[in-house]
Target: HAD family hydrolase
Amino acid sequence: MDAVVFDLDGVLVDSETVWDEVRQAFATAHGGSWTPGATRAMQGMSTPEWAAYLVEAVGVRLTPDEVAAGVVAEMERRYEAGPPVPGGAVDVVRQVADRWPVAIASSSPPALIRSFLEATDLVDVVPVALSSEEAGAGKPAPDVYLLAASRLGVAPERCAAVEDSTNGLRSALAAGMAVYAVPNPHFPPDPAVLAQVTVLRELAELPAALGSSRPSG
Model:
């Protein structure tokens, strides 16, 4: 293994429920009708994808651009006091980065990724931080993971990926990476997908699970 790629929401930021609250409230306020499968359907989607979904599937009476702007603005407001980072998450990133190059491959918009890096003082620790908006298709497509590996200069099959959701796990698997799951307790991943990856009880287990080998080359 030559590099480690982290998902952001649900792994390094406890934000999946915040995204869900904000999207539901925004949709309801603008004429939409929330459906039972909407939350899981949007997990991993890029901003353009979930904005279009809220218009087409949920019935929000705005354009996708207006939806994206409104939801992201509310998320930025929620992050003003700092993103909800679980205890120990930053230490795990630093421990891993001491041994391997690390990246973030997220479905969050670039502004929220920057907010996380700045709030946690990880700007200089994480050399590659990508939004799926920059990669084309969102998760479960592998695009953002493949782009992260490319930016790190590492073959995807030489990377480990850390994910929490069904679509995120499928994305990393499709990229050919060794996948570690920290299952989201609020939105548990599909057991059939979990059966294909290494499952951790908590993020703190990651450094030991990655093993003691150092990067090659």
